[in-house]
Amino acid sequence: MYVYEDEYVTRRRTPRRTRRRTRTGAAAALLALALLAGGCAGVGGGVRGVPGAAGLRDPYFPKLGNGGYDVRHYALSLAYDPGTGRLEGTAEITARATQDLSAFNLDLAGLTVSGATVDGDPAAHNRAGDELTLRPREDISDGAEFRTTVTYTGVPEPITDADGSDEGWLRTDDGAVAVGEPEGSMTWFPGNHHPADKASYDITLTVPAGLEALSNGVRTERRTEGDGRVTTVWRSAEPMASYLATVAIGRYETATATAPRSLPVLTAAAPSVAASSAALRGEIPRILARQAERFGPYPFSAAGAIVTEDGTLGYALETQTRPVFPAAAFDRTTLVHELAHQWFGNSVTPATWRDLWLNEGFATYAEWLYTEEYENVPARTHFERAFAQDANWAFPPAAPPAAENLFDPPVYQRGAMVLHKLRETVGDATFDEILRGWPAKYRHANASTDDFTAYAESVAGKDLDGLWKVWLYGDGKPDKP
Fold first, then answer.
1. Which end of the chain is less enclosed by CB atoms within 10 A, N or C?
2. Are 354 and 278 in contact (CB under 8 A)?
3. What was the pLDDT predicted at 19?
4. Residue 362 CA to chain centroid, in angstroms?
5. Which of 275, 278, 284 has its CA nearest to residue 304?
6. Sheet containing 145-154, strands listed edge to edge, beginning at the edge strand earlier in sequence
7. Count of H helices and E strands in the chain?
8. pTM for the predicted model, two decimal places
9. Residue 28 has pLDDT above 70, yes or no
């Protein structure tokens, strides 16, 4: 993501901020740990389950996510009153048990749960902090698909991250913007909020007449209710990590276009910035077409962007299919970055938050490739500039010291430097093969840093330990670039 401060824009979360349910690399390890924490199923006399783990032991967010099940689909129905800030929601969650379950957890911050069911039967529920624990009437068998419905209401409150930025459900003068990297989505719907558990989504939004309500994916329906409110329905058929879900409610002006392969492109902008942002929004089909040539086929069924007024967001975020930008950060460089995330981060999603450099390093390198091609600035020039900046050597990109460092310069700039050194080591032809093959191999899945280094070595046909040791994991700055 990009965070803009004073007179310049820097990268942060994308806040500059799936797929298949298969678990790969570190994601499988996280799930195994969670299952061990939950215990083993009993035998005899029918299903004798145990509670799923409350947390997936992520290196930076150990309580985020939950064990014992795998979400397949979220159907969210949300009604919002901008005047009061009150949200009324129903979340229908379809999941598959990965162990015999007597109880399981959902992540939910704030808000009041008024009821819950599992497969249509009332389920006992209780809250402890950001954990909502549900106990179904009957234990759920390992491998069984089940459907949980949670009704809830309240005024969502944003989360302030360790680095001081705000995320979650953010109120605006005429509506709200919801962004979720890394934890914010739990402020507006209950779920398994770790990137290792991705799912498809249907999001139904009901708002007062005169307002637009936008979300991810394809808009499948728009209707006026009997009370005059307007309901829109959005479908994301491809899996999505919950931190990439978004909602934007307000008096937006929209525009449509078509990218290659008949890809629908829908953009929206606040009225005060609609005219000034129109030309750049219109470039999205061309940028996507060129990125598809470099990175492989676009991985989703819709594309676009949302441009908000300044004052609510301090960064741009790569929310799936429709990145969100504050007006001050809506420039071509940031747009290229966030669109590249659709391949790197959104389709290939990090196994844990420690693997975030795989998002930000690739998206930053996409900027370098763009300026190399269109502005005659070689990627090597960007590399040397980044090499000279002391901030990029604070820690290795694959090992941020704490959650507050996840969106610091080494994750972005030094992450991109790793890729450029890989390019110089293996040559342009092999690097281009990696650039296309990596998002193809892990399309709509999760992947770890170890997955990437192993894949790059398999394509290159040689050991690259020396490169990884210095540029990806090394603590010190090399003598020369």
1. C
2. no
3. 29
4. 15
5. 284
6. 121-122, 112-118, 145-154, 86-97, 69-81, 199-207, 230-240, 218-224
7. 11, 26
8. 0.91
9. no
Strands 101-107 vs 230-240: parallel, antiparallel or unpaired? unpaired
* DSSP label of 459: H
Spatial separation of the C-alpha atoms in residues 104 and 54, rounded to whole Å? 8
Please tell me the distance from the alpha carbon of residue 53 to that of residue 31, in angstroms, as a whole number.
Answer: 10
Q: Which candidate, 407, 224, 235, 247, places its Cα nearest to that of 312?
A: 247
Q: Name the nearest CA neighbour of 81 among 224, 206, 231, 232.
A: 206
Tokens linked to 448: 């770890």
pLDDT in tens, 153-210: 999 999 999 889 999 999 999 999 999 999 999 999 999 999 999 999 999 999 999 9
Q: Which amino acid is at 103?
A: A
Q: What pLDDT shows up at residue 397?
A: 98
What is the mean predicted confidence (pLDDT) over 442-456?
Answer: 98
Q: Are the CB atoms for 236 and 201 separated by under 8 Å?
A: yes
Structure tokens that stand for 74 in this block: 């979220």
User: Where in 161-198 does DSSP place strands (E)?
Assistant: 166-171, 176-179
Distances (CA, A) of 98 to 53, 104, 135, 325: 11, 11, 16, 38
Q: Report the amino acid identity of residue 298.
A: Y
